[in-house]
């Protein structure tokens, strides 16, 4: 539904409510004010909006009644107006409650679909959606883009030796450490198991390799302690730069080739595809 249509609907229903209450003196007709009020909550489903709209609605009713009828208002009309206002507030709060809960649920479901439940970073589905927009933009603006792919060395051995809870703890800590090193514009993704991707917009292969080496060193020097036992953790990293015309599959395959070379030649190192530089411990 178009937001423009909703704004027009809110304005039209608000004016209609004022006109109807001007020509008819039944206080129950102020219940019509629920229509634009609920539409506003649809646009901004928060308790702050609910409180502001509720207070403004009460003020509007009082001012409008005084302006429309002035000295003609009787005691019975005041009582009826108060009861109508209370009933309207109750209905409005109940509707707002369900709309706010629904909006939060939709956000949570959306986040769940696009994030990794263990580490809280993005998952492969988010990467696919992001790259659908990023690849055409990169080609149009001639921007460089580098992809870092890494996994944890001998992660199965960590799980077998210390247990899967220890493995989960290692994954979570690596994510915390690396999140503290990347830029806000970088995209950090867990694509499965112990394998991760960092997409670096506006970053050349040379700078990507240097950045990857900083990450490798940081992880190597980080103390991973689980139940009082230190677990020595290192990562192998493959780095590649985007080439115009590639799709996401080919882009990932190049990074995977670089990662495979890093693992095959000793692990705990950074290898850039089509670049002779390789940092090694």
From TrEMBL:
Annotated GO molecular function terms are: diguanylate cyclase activity
Query: What does the entry list under GO cellular component?
Result: plasma membrane
Membrane-spanning residues where?
6-23, 28-45, 51-69, 78-98
Pfam family for this entry, one: GGDEF
Q: InterPro entries of this UniProt entry?
A: Diguanylate_Cyclase, GGDEF_dom, Nucleotide_cyclase, Rev_trsase/Diguanyl_cyclase
Keyword list, A-Z: Membrane, Transmembrane, Transmembrane helix
Q: Which residues form the GGDEF domain?
A: 143-275
A GO BP term here is: cell adhesion involved in single-species biofilm formation
Q: What is this protein called?
A: Two-component system, cell cycle response regulator
Q: Which organism is it from?
A: Parageobacillus thermantarcticus
Q: What is the lineage of its organism?
A: Bacteria, Bacillati, Bacillota, Bacilli, Bacillales
């Amino acid at each position: 539904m178009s937001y423009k249509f909703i704004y027009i609907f809110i304005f039209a229903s608000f004016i209609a409510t004022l006109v109807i209450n001007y020509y008819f003196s039944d206080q129950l007709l102020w219940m019509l004010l629920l229509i634009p009020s609920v539409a506003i909550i649809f646009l901004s489903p928060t308790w702050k909006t609910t409180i502001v709209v509720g207070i403004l609605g009460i003020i509007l009713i009082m001012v409008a009644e005084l302006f429309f009828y002035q000295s003609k208002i009787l005691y019975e009309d005041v009582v009826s107006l108060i009861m109508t206002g209370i009933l309207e507030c109750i209905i409005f709060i109940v509707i707002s409650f369900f709309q706010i809960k629904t909006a939060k649920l939709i956000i949570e479901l959306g986040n769940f679909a696009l994030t990794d439940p263990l580490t809280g970073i993005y998952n492969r589905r988010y990467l696919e959606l992001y790259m659908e927009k990023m690849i055409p933009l990169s080609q149009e603006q001639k921007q460089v883009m580098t992809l870092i792919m890494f996994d944890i060395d001998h992660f199965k051995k960590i799980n077998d030796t210390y247990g899967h809870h220890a493995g989960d703890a290692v994954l979570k800590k690596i994510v915390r450490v690396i999140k503290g090193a990347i830029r806000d514009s970088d995209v950090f993704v867990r694509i499965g198991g112990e394998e991760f991707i960092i997409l670096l917009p506006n970053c050349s292969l040379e700078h990507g390799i240097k950045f990857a080496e900083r990450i490798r060193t940081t992880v190597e020097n980080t103390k991973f302690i689980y139940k009082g036992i230190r677990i020595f953790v290192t990562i192998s990293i493959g780095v590649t730069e985007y080439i115009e015309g590639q799709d996401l599959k080919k882009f990932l395959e190049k990074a995977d080739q670089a990662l495979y070379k890093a693992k095959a030649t000793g692990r705990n190192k950074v290898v850039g595809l089509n670049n002779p530089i390789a940092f090694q411990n």
